Amino acid sequence: MRVLLQRVSAGSVTVDGKVCGAIEGGFVALVGVAHDDTQVEAERLAKKTANLRVFSDDDGKMNLSLLDINGGALVVSQFTLYADARKGRRPSYIDAAPPQQAEPLVSRFAQCLQAAGVKRVEGGIFGALMQVEIHNDGPVTIMLDSDLL
Fold first, then answer.
1. Which is catalytic among the residues 79, 101, 111, 126?
2. Peptide bond preceding 139 in cis form (omega within 30 of 0)
3. Pick the CATH number of 2-148 from 3.50.80.10, 3.20.10.10, 3.90.420.10, 3.30.70.920
């Protein structure tokens, strides 16, 4: 499982012209699921996300977590995190899990963020064509990969 975290001052997801999820400060979490991922990876990455210290303290140092700042998380499924563009011009997505496997794990990731104490967890609509608005803060972008934790 891969989670691309973008520290944001605001973020939102729109589907068919309607905002279906929005946060102020926190993370936009783009979540990709691979074939061998389970709830264990979702739980571990959610805990890491909630506690990752990349928000500025009073001295301007990245020393605070999402929990410390009472930030929100906007969780968006993103199968293209498993794109393989090594050959040719068209990426392969063969490493991405099928929707019936990925959707429950993306949902589990969001549930685990809430269980960890993240006050506001919003999301997109799995499989929909989404317009994601991201107001990067910093910018700070961190890739978490369950294979590397």
1. 79
2. yes
3. 3.50.80.10
- Is 79 known to be catalytic? yes
DSSP conformational letter for 147: G
Reply yes or no on whether 101 is catalytic.
no
| Residue-by-residue DSSP string for 49-106 | HHH---EE-TTS-EEE-TTTTT-EEEEEE-GGGG-B-SSSSS-B-TTBPPHHHHHHHH
Tens-place pLDDT, residues 61-119: 999 999 999 999 999 999 999 999 999 999 999 999 999 999 999 999 999 999 999 99
Query: What is the pTM assigned to this prediction?
Result: 0.96
**Residue 109 is among the residues annotated as catalytic for this protein:** no
